[in-house]
Design brief:
Length: 91
């Protein structure tokens, strides 16, 4: 059950761990609470670094949020149609 080395983005370009992608859409879990759903949906349009690629072919990205009293983190696994590779100089 090894994770994949790279996946394709919506344009067919290979994306590997450590590269940056623009988040085009997300597929939230239907059981997600409203606050977490808001944070996940806010990720659309952002550029984020791929942290891992799972065996299902999802590229996982994370965003950190500064809240009033603490920080929060949101991670989401992106399928190829949900991301677009970003050149290093823009990432």
């Amino acid at each position: 059950m090894d994770a994949r080395v790279s996946v394709k983005d919506r344009n067919g370009r290979a994306v590997a761990v450590g590269e940056h992608v623009r988040i085009l859409s997300v597929s939230p879990d239907p059981d997600m609470d409203e606050d977490e759903l808001d944070m996940i949906m806010f990720m659309v349009g952002a550029i984020s670094e791929v942290e891992k690629i799972d065996e299902e072919g999802r590229a996982w990205v994370t965003m950190w949020w500064n809240c009033v009293e603490t920080t929060a983190v949101s991670s989401v696994g992106l399928f190829p149609h949900e991301m677009e590779w970003v050149p290093p100089e823009l990432g």
